[in-house]
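Field reference: sequence -> structure
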Amino acid sequence: MAQKKPLALIDDDADIRQLLSQYMAQQGYEVASFADGESFLETDFNDYALAILDIGLPGIDGLSVCRQLRQSSNLPVIMLTAASDDLDRILGLELGADDYMGKPFNPRELLARIKALLRRVESQPAIGSNVGQLAINNQLRTVMFSDKTLSLTGAEFDLLALLAQHQGQVVSKDDISRALHGRANSPFDRSIDTAVSRLRSKLGEHYPDAIQNVRAKGYVLVIPCR
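Structure field:
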């Protein structure tokens, strides 16, 4: 069965757009292709299931596109970066990308990451949870503190929801990576550390010590009762 919403592919390389569009169509995914960031930003982000975003775009680069996207949407984003450019990968994650792949890449691996991200979004239970004064709504994918909405990316929301589900229990990096990315954690993968750092920063005003690092084991969410 085809994906209900298309994947958005933003890449200035016509060969990559054609290759991925054909490959994803064979796998049952419709693709909406864009040669530049401006064209994508003019559309309704709610029309897509996920965005595949190249960093090296002409005009507005991929990092700027991601920054503008995150101002109004939690659309899952996989960034395509130069294989050797760690700085771009880190910046992309800090701006709210959910995952990244270095170029050149194997379309089968990209497909696996797309499926993992979509499963992560779709597998959230309809009912959320209350932790301290945080109200986590899995259906709307929102987090409220009292009457204020916290601005979280998709990865940050999923990380908080996972830790809240196991509040007071240590969750290993491998378990976090499998839940967020569908794969075991790699020692060279900074995406978990970046998501934890950003989430800590956003919770810091209300719960500065909420996410604690248990050395060599993982992370634990500790929030006092109201």
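Note: The helical segments are 14-26, 37-41, 62-70, 86-94, 107-122, 154-165, 173-181, 191-203.
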